[in-house]
Amino acid sequence: MGLREQVNTALKQAMRDKDAARLATLRLINAAIKDQDIARRGADGDTDLTDADILAILGKMTKQRQESVRAYEEGGRLDLAEREQREIEVISEFLPRQLEDDEVAAAIDTAIAQTDASSIRDMGKVMGWLKERHTGQMDFGAVGPMVKQKLG
């Protein structure tokens, strides 16, 4: 079952359970996926989102909420921060398990070997290889400097 079907199944279950908070978050996920469908339809005619595309959407949604949690906590709005945190938990159900630090390091080493990267100029190839295989499993904002350090 693809990610889109998993989200729809969870949405129906949340309706049956009358879980309003979960239902609202699942509807936000569905809306983000449909927005991307519409954007694709106008752009190049290819409307089918892959699971990797949906993972990218979910990752972006998670990152946005993490930034909101930080802002709300700094502003003393703990109630809003908790709501955002609950949304992160629901979204995270559909994301793959995050890799541990040693697994990320091993994936970077593998990517460097597979792409025959030898200098910082090859960083794009390495990052592309990692994104192809590990979307949603690692924070690419943190991985970039690690790759740069190994290539530099």
Task: Outline the structure in words.
- The structure is a single chain.
- The chain has 152 residues and is mainly alpha-helical.
- It has two domains: 3-92, Orthogonal Bundle (Hypothetical Protein Yqey, Chain: A, domain1); 101-151, Arc Repressor Mutant, subunit A (Orthogonal Bundle), CATH 1.10.10.
- It is built from seven helices and no strands.
- Helix 2 (20-43) packs across helix 4 (78-92), helix 3 (51-74) packs antiparallel against helix 4 (78-92) and helix 6 (123-134) packs antiparallel against helix 7 (140-151).
- The longest helix has 24 residues, at 20-43.
- It is globular and about 55 Å long.
- The N and C termini lie far apart (41 Å).
- The mean pLDDT is 89.
Q: TL;DR?
A:
The protein is mainly α. 76% of the residues lie in helices and 0% in strands.
Residue share in helix: over 70%
What is the CATH H-level superfamily of the largest domain? Uncharacterised protein YqeY/AIM41, N-terminal domain
Q: How many strand units?
A: 0
| CATH third-tier fold name of the largest domain | Hypothetical Protein Yqey, Chain: A, domain1
Distance from N terminus to C terminus (CA atoms, Å) equals 41 Å
The helix tally amounts to: 7
Q: How much of the polypeptide forms β-strand, as a percent range?
A: under 5%
